[in-house]
Design a protein that fits this description.
The protein is of the alpha/beta class. 26% of the residues lie in helices and 20% in strands. Among the domains are: 185 residues, NADH-ubiquinone oxidoreductase 51kDa subunit (Rossmann fold, 3-Layer(aba) Sandwich), CATH 3.40.50.11540; 73 residues, no CATH class. A hairpin with a 7-residue loop joins strand 14 and strand 15. Helix 9 packs across helix 12 and helix 10 crosses helix 12. It is globular, with a radius of gyration of 22 Å.
Length: 448
């Protein structure tokens, strides 16, 4: 089986060996859950419960009527103790519902629904009501992604099984331990969209998963045309646009979406959540993630109730060597967010928690740009990071926009390859926000 890939990219140390062969451990008993009300990309939603309410596992606790929204459910049965702002994995305070488990285990799931017999409208409603979002990135509401406009027909559904971020192995373990639910969820999505071709994009460092996946396809795909495509092990192979190029040869246009080239991409965990929502009526109330890093005595692949506070897992589940901790990251080391401490909750799109030691969290001093061009050769979006950096240093947001700063996916490849150790991706993140603020301000004045 030949491998496919995209132009550019880099090869950071994988560092997956500590957790790749460790089975997933389920954590069912927790002290509390702190569930962020807004865990999706889109319009905000509001809490439906109040302090003192008794809730069941799976009960809806936050929602809104807006299109770009996704409901949130209680991940444990218990009592609502607080509804207040708490720090979230993105380092921003947001409203959270704090629930103390009562040990009853009472559930309030939806009725099972046959994903291969229901109507498209029923299927979309089920995915929406289950609160399913993209579990590998920004948390885009899945039901919205699966309802493209009529002028954007979908030709292929792609499962993002690349898991290219260093350290992270939770998707790999799901493919090994639960390939059937993954394949069935993918087949349901293909039927919903009326798509005949499904592709599992798998990096070649995980080709040992192929036999299990092929068996699952034969047993659970219900006739859906699902194939496995091996991808070169390279970062950011799991980036949505890079994955589409590698699998289809088509390039998503600047400012466009995968639907513009007839593709829908979903994460491994998202497909499993879809299967559970139809078969069991279970909302998205659990999350798998990898805990790793040199300041952790033993790496883990874990499944926990959404809202589980990482600090509550220490030391019974996670044995953190506190004197060795130099950086804590929510997510992977390339695109994850450094957080000040581990007192934050796991949410729907948390793929990892890394406890990095001094050797893993080096921060060399920046040197002047030497115009070597490595960042340009490595950029998978075909941008010119050095020129973007120069424009942003000069405060020229219009020039940065013209060069393409809004097309940056913030993968961190340019920063990784830069011999001058310039923190390019951090500059671009700030620059993109400043530019968006400028565009919003201009639009506001134009509307007056």
């Amino acid at each position: 089986m030949s491998t496919k890939t995209f132009r550019g990219g880099a090869h950071p140390p994988e560092r997956k060996e500590r957790s790749a062969e460790l089975p997933i451990e389920r954590v069912e008993q927790v002290k509390q859950v702190v569930i962020p009300v807004n865990q999706h990309f889109g319009a905000p939603i509001q809490a439906l419960v109040k302090v003192g309410d008794t809730v069941k596992r799976g009960q809806k606790i936050a929602d809104s009527d807006g299109r770009m929204t996704c409901p949130v459910h209680a991940s444990v049965a218990g009592t609502v103790k607080k509804i207040e702002p708490r720090m979230q994995p993105n380092n921003v305070e947001g409203l959270c519902v704090v629930i103390e488990p009562d040990g009853s285990g009472a559930t309030e799931f939806m009725s099972p629904l046959d994903g291969f017999a229901c109507t498209k409208e029923e299927a979309l409603a089920r995915i929406h009501e289950a609160g399913i979002v993209g579990m590998g990135g920004a948390g885009f509401p899945t039901w919205v992604k699966l309802a493209p406009p009529p002028n954007k027909p979908i030709d292929v559904v792609i499962a993002n099984a690349a898991e290219c971020e260093p350290y992270l192995t939770i998707d790999e373990r799901v493919l090994i331990e639960n390939p059937g639910d993954f394949v069935e969820g993918m087949a349901i999505v293909m039927r919903l969209l009326g798509v005949k071709r499904g592709v599992i994009g798998l990096e070649e460092n995980k080709k040992h998963c192929v036999d299990g996946l092929e068996k699952a396809i034969a047993e659970r795909a219900r006739g859906a045309g699902i194939e496995i495509v091996l991808l070169k092990t390279k970062y950011p192979q799991g980036g949505e646009k890079m994955l589409i190029v590698a699998v289809t040869g088509k390039e998503v246009p600047s400012g466009g979406l995968p639907m513009d080239v007839g593709a829908v991409v979903q994460n491994v965990g998202t497909f499993v959540a879809v299967c559970e929502a139809f078969r069991d009526g279970k909302p998205l109330i659990e999350r798998g993630f990898t805990a790793s890093g040199g300041a952790l005595a033993e790496a883990k692949n874990l499944y926990v109730p959404i809202g589980t506070v990482v600090a509550d897992l220490v030391p019974e589940v996670l044995k953190v060597i506190e004197p060795k901790v130099r950086k804590v990251v929510a997510g992977g080391p390339m695109m994850g967010v450094p957080v000040p401490h581990w007192t934050f909750p796991i949410q729907k799109n948390t793929s990892g928690v890394l406890f990095l030691d001094a050797s893993e969290a080096k921060a060399p001093a920046e040197d002047p740009c030497i115009r070597c061009g490595r960042c340009m050769r490595a950029c998978s979006c075909r941008l010119s990071p050095a020129l973007l950096n120069k424009a942003l240093e000069a405060g020229d947001l219009d020039l940065a926009r013209e060069i393409g700063v809004l097309d940056c996916i913030e993968c961190g490849t340019c920063s990784f390859v830069c011999p001058a150790h310039i923190q390019l991706v951090q500059r671009f993140r700030v620059g993109k926000q400043l530019l968006r603020n400028k565009i919003a301000k201009e639009a506001k004045h134009a509307g007056k």
